[in-house]
Amino acid sequence: MKTPYSFFLSIIMLLACHETQDPIIYDANPDGLIGTWQQVERSYSIGGPQISENISDGPLMTFEDNGLFTLTKFNECSTGTYILDGDELTFTFDCKDIEEGVNPFTFSVYFLDDYLKVSPKTTVCIEGCSAKFKKLKD
């Protein structure tokens, strides 16, 4: 009696399992990084659990195939060069003084479904933070 029960339980456990998908780094994304992305969400913590907020009309990031970028977040300094090395994206702004005070600025980057998610590495958010971008159609 114990064998059929164990067999049945094993089948249920196998059917309940599903494969989790690891984040895809840039090189594995068929659409690539080139193009314009719009921020649609930000996540942060103020000492407790992560807070995620949807953003409408968020800033735009445009990546060109020649290593140049444009970012609409900062008024005075919005252009520069970028380097993508594995899952690390580094921006070097054209101006010396930017609002965030750091230049160059490095992010951990990965794709999740149809989104690009970035988390700062240069200045670390104590409780963690990230921004999610959706690629706009050309």
From TrEMBL:
- One Pfam family in the UniProt entry: Lipocalin_4
Task: Show the InterPro entries listed in the entry.
Answer: Lipocalin-like
Q: Which residues form the Lipocalin-like domain?
A: 33-100
Protein name from the UniProt record: Lipocalin family protein
Organism, by scientific name, is Echinicola arenosa
Task: List the taxonomic lineage.
Answer: Bacteria, Pseudomonadati, Bacteroidota, Cytophagia, Cytophagales
